[in-house]
Specification:
Chains A, B: Keywords: Calcium, Hydrolase, Metal-binding, Signal. Chains A, B: Belongs to the sulfatase family. Chains A, B: This is Arylsulfatase A. Chains A, B: One of its GO terms (molecular function) is arylsulfatase activity. Chains A, B: It comes from Pedobacter soli. The structure is a homodimer. In chain A, about 60% of the residues are buried. The longest helix of chain A has 26 residues. In chain A, helix 2 crosses helix 8 and helix 6 packs parallel to helix 8. Chain A starts with 15 loop residues before the first helix and ends in a 24-residue tail after the last helix. The first copy, chain A, is an alpha/beta fold. The first copy, chain A, is built from 13 helices and 14 strands. Helices cover about 25% and strands about 15% of the residues of chain A. The radius of gyration of chain A is 21 Å and the shape is globular. In chain A, a hairpin with a 2-residue loop joins strand 12 and strand 13. In chain A, the strands form four sheets. In chain A, strands 1, 7, 8, 9 and 10 form a five-stranded mixed β-sheet that branches. In chain A, strands 11-12-13-14 form a four-stranded antiparallel β-sheet, with helices on one face. Chain A has two domains: about 350 residues, Alkaline Phosphatase, subunit A (3-Layer(aba) Sandwich), CATH 3.40.720; about 100 residues, Arylsulfatase, C-terminal domain. At the A-B interface, strand 5 and helix 6 of A face strand 5 and helix 6 of B.
Chain lengths: ~475, ~475
């Protein structure tokens, strides 16, 4: 889901896409809490999801692309310029020396250790089959419903048993939902019902709990959520766009149901709600309409280091603390969730295997006027997501890119030709005007920060097949 | 698993089958606890499993045959004499008015309500897909691993992903075990590892817990547990028998691992262990060797109301209460588990939807010399399990039978021809000498008890296709 896939305007005034989508419950949450207008994830899902659980930036996890459900199976598209990168293709692990994984402590484990009742419902996609990370129980969750190694559902439809039709099931068939087979329950709804059911236990026991409700929607396959799709056909959307919009609204309905549930249980005022996505909105790749329009005014979409691929619709309701209907413009990133959540839970001086890259957002949640220390937010994608036309690859910022958000600035590093681009997001939210040539000093400074940060975090760079040499870090290239 | 599928002699002296099987951990449990030599289940699994959870006899649940994973799909073989029976083919439900189910309160739900941490691992098989009973979360469990609507695994092998091979998976593919795919972990071992993992949480939190570890072994498909199979080939067993024996030993290893785990955690002396099976040992139907030998000296096996089909290897270790290496000869039945477990947990005056048929075994566990009140133990199978030859059907006591255990006596009611058989189990454990003709008074008395009990419990009887009349209850037939 992207930042524009909602009727909540994250860009100040309502834009055309805000009018297209209907997310009344996100509006409700925004009214009750704080809207982050500069919140970031990574360009695709697994890197974001593993950074969420570990507090590490992807440059450090070496999980820079989505992981296959199959162990030791790289997901990068074949490339003529670069050879295969030896990244952590099996994802995250709680067990040392699991091949091709990052070994780290997860915050759900720390919450669990502290007495929280930890529930995962929905998409997990933290590790490949045959490794511990495929099982949420190994990552600190006490309850897991429907989470496994796959990143999308084989089907959203109960009539197709969410993929589990005899002789048809693939690795993406969604587990644990037999109760709903052939009941007409869309996957999003089934997950919501299961989440509510799972919360009953800690609520009845007056135990603190953490629910990780990770909807499969709006990932492909784009399938109509029939409860909502007609509205979008009526509005003139094409089939793909209507299906996509219906999936957004189904997900939003889930948010509302959870909010209603918390209220009915009398714990709404004692429960923090965070809304976040794990990559930008899908652009092209099955969407209807022209390319580079689906996150307008943001450039590109999922897979890209341009804003459309990484900027997210983040909302936080911290009852009694976040001011209703407030806005926070601090640049924040998924790496920040780990320390923030532990901070909320009062878990201090915890020991983690890994070094954290995120910072706690508690001070700025308490007061959005508190400016977070200026710091590099790093996006690193030394991988090949899709086979794009050369022209589109560059237009969309997809495959072999790093990027830096630093204050008002955005630096893009294209590894293919080792070019740098510079954008002033305070004036150019659409990243149209590359200022690198006009402002070589700022470009050089930012390239230095990005290069240094990537090296500190042990980032991997792609290796040219012709020379067997890695691409230089961005601080090592000539400013053209 | 049958009563003879173990090296623990449940018949006093060791019999040939006790020498065939190797179950050192059952021996260890028997040494530490109490062996029940007259413990009963129903002839097939779902009836037993649903009686376990509800405390109701199958005559009352109307779950008298195994349930299909598919909703509203009867599993009875077609018959010329009798039409289809309208039994609860979708199993057990926690929700009223679920079609073709019995609506009841489960003891795990009552344990959960009382603060127990309730875990299910392995075979569930309590309800069909598309109904609440397919999901152990609806039956009182907080954690479910690998349990769903199917009664057997598609595969025991990690190399076959326990059935989840792309394009090959059927309804019996085992969920939730992706972590073990292609690791060489036999299903029994994977379930054991998951059970230990799940127990860590309540142990760390010092919460009381209930673990329902329900191995899929030794259900078909009979697949070699490679850790143990060679011993049985070396002993000269044929392939089917060697595979079966290896699955028994793998299951026994699991018991030992759980016992070791409890000891290592320091809670062995504060944890009750119950070992039980859900039907008699499989006889014929894929087993090697001649029919009617697999539970020797007991007659027949799974599917039958003769002793080989219903008598089980039950062991209970109640630390500090059950005398080590003690034996209890009281006839007991799976219906008794519900009140016994609640008694153990100190849960009194609980409200259940259903009327219970079982009684608490606590008094006789405390002192095996305490004789339980003489009472009818009822086995009711107004269904057709398999297409047997007419001769074998009668020899084996399979299809359309009821039976009564009452004191030393066993009454068999064959619905096909409305014949009664009487056996004195104190002298004739193999049910070879039918005393009905020689002892019509006892036969009549027992037929009266069985008929009365069946009627009290609202038992269903098969309906003859030719006359549309139900088979008379056993107290209504002429003693021949």
């Amino acid at each position: 889901m992207g930042i524009m896939d909602t009727s909540v305007p994250f860009r100040g005034e309502a834009m055309p896409l805000n009018k297209r989508y209907h997310t009344p419950n996100m509006e409700r949450l925004a009214k009750q809490g704080m809207k982050f207008t500069n919140a970031y994830a990574q360009p695709v899902c697994t890197p974001t999801r593993t950074s969420l659980l570990t507090g590490m930036n992807t440059a450090r996890t070496h999980i820079t692309n989505w992981t296959s459900p199959n162990k030791n199976e790289p997901t990068d598209a074949k490339d003529e310029q670069f050879g295969p990168l030896n990244w952590n293709i099996n994802g995250l692990s709680n067990t040392p020396q699991t091949e091709n994984t990052v070994y780290a402590t997860t915050f759900p484990q720390l919450l669990k250790n502290a007495g929280y009742y930890t529930i995962h419902v929905g998409k997990a996609h933290w590790g490949s089959m045959g490794t511990p990370g495929s099982n949420p129980y190994n990552l600190g969750f006490m309850v897991n419903i429907a989470g496994h190694s796959a990143g999308h559902p084989q089907s959203y439809l109960s009539e197709q048993r969410y993929g589990n039709l005899p002789g048809k099931a693939q690795a993406q068939a969604v587990p644990d939902l037999q109760e709903y087979y052939n009941t007409g329950t869309f996957l999003t709804e089934a997950l919501t019902l299961e989440a509510k059911k799972a919360m009953e236990t800690p609520i009845a026991r007056k135990e603190p709990f953490y629910l990780n409700l990770a909807h499969y929607a709006v990932h492909v396959p784009l399938m109509a959520d029939k409860r909502f799709v007609q509205r979008y056909y009526d509005a003139g959307l094409d089939s793909a766009e209507a299906r996509y919009a219906s999936m957004i609204e189904g997900m939003d309905k889930s948010l509302g149901d959870i909010m209603d549930f918390l209220k009915a249980k009398g714990i709404a005022e004692n429960t923090i709600i965070v809304f976040m996505s794990d990559n930008g909105g899908l652009d092209a790749h099955g969407r209807g309409g022209p390319v580079n329009t689906h996150n307008y005014p943001f450039r590109s979409g999922k897979g890209s280091v341009y804003e459309g691929g990484i900027r997210e619709p983040m909302l936080v309701k911290w009852p009694g603390v976040t001011k209703p209907q407030s806005t926070n413009a601090n640049p924040v990133i998924i790496d920040d969730f780990f320390p923030t959540i532990l901070d909320w839970a009062g878990i201090r001086n915890n020991k983690t295997i890994q070094k954290l890259d995120g910072i706690s957002l508690v001070p700025t949640l308490k007061n959005p006027a508190v400016k977070l220390t200026e710091r590099p937010l790093v996006f690193h994608y030394p991988n090949k997501w899709t086979n794009e036309k050369e022209k589109d690859e560059q237009l969309l910022g997809i495959n072999y890119y790093s990027a830096l958000r630093y204050g008002q600035w955005k630096l893009i590093y294209r590894m293919r030709n080792q070019e740098l681009e510079l954008y002033d997001l305070s004036k150019d939210i659409s990243e149209k005007n590359n200022l690198a040539a006009a402002n070589p000093a700022e470009t050089k400074k930012l390239a230095g920060i990005l290069g240094k940060t990537l090296k500190e975090r042990g980032a991997q760079m792609p290796v040219a097949s012709s020379t067997s040499k890695p691409v230089p870090f961005p601080d090592e290239v000539t400013i053209r």
